[in-house]
Amino acid sequence: MSTHIIEERKEHREQQARVTMPDLEPEAVEMLIMRINALKRQRNAVILAHNYQVPEIFDRVADVTGDSLELARRAADSHADLIVVCGVHFMAETAKLLNPDRTVLIPDPEAGCSLADSITAGDVRQLRRRYPGLPVVTYVNTPAEVKAESDICCTSGNAVAVVESLGVDRVILIPDRHLAEWVAGETSVEIVRWRGSCEVHEQFDPGQIRAYRQRTPGGVVIAHPECPRAVLDEADVVGSTAGMIRYLEEHHPAQAALITEASMTDNLRSRFPRTAFETVEPVCPYMKRITLTKIVQALEKTQFRVEIPAEIAARARRSVERMLEVGRGGSK
Ligand code: 13P
Ligand code: SF4
Description:
Layout: H1 3-17, H2 26-43, E1 45-50, H3 55-60, E2 64-66, H4 68-77, E3 82-86, H5 89-98, E4 103-105, H6 121-130, E5 136-139, H7 144-148, E6 152-154, H8 159-165, E7 170-174, H9 177-186, E8 190-193, H10 206-215, E9 220-223, H11 229-232, E10 237-238, H12 241-251, E11 255-259, H13 262-269, E12 276-277, H14 292-301, H15 310-327
Parallel strand pairs: 1-2, 1-3, 3-4, 5-6, 5-7, 7-8, 9-10, 9-11, 11-12
This protein binds 1,3-dihydroxyacetonephosphate and iron/sulfur cluster (SF4).
């Protein structure tokens, strides 16, 4: 069967289900990977991939992998002509904010995020009217228009450091209510929250962790701060996706459960062969919109370009750059 037909069938299944994992024939996967790596050289392109991308993208075509913070930092350092972001739209926007003169592509512009959709620029203006004088700290999982209304951005890796860097008693932290609640427990700064949440991390429940512990005595549970508080209370460690990798590098646990999106575990199995990982279910449907075929098309057709109106970009960039200044100390 030709690669083209296999891919067309896969696209069809994707449209039906919206959530897919790559299920191409191995030869088709190899051909696509070879094509992408050749195109990257021809086009002087760099591929940035988030930790939730499938292993074929994460291990075989990405030049840089990481959490949102690392991708933002590396985007800022890029010298490539083309930057292809294999992640969700706000990550590609962040790369564009930090590289206004370069071409930034996202292989599927519909790769969104439930947190990014939970708040608008108008909501932020309303919050400012309601809490005059309070600084607005905005999680990077937001559109550029929302970042433009903010004082500073944060990621799950540096949220506590960013909040504390402002030197005030009270801040607004938007849009994830679970991240805000976790940060509130880590600092003496009072946190005003918004109602957003991640539809993937909300699927975990504390009973799953208790069942894992019964099955796997001694297993380490590491949870992402986008999980609800009751889940985080059951975890041994809370951290961003980069924080999870750092913990594994430092401690090499015999068994571990990563309470976050499913590909994170898939990606780390080969890197940490001495750790037995619990398989977790939730998949981010937005991250999975990025496929090898769409990366080929992005590189061949120079699509889909990320553009941000100049006036919004200038203000949003300031919020991201302010975060990177604080983040230079390292992420949690
Ligand atoms: P990280 O920055 O920890 O990788 O998280 C990004 C994200 O979208 C988590 O759902
Ligand atoms: Fe957004 Fe959640 Fe997907 Fe992360 S996992 S990109 S927060 S929907």
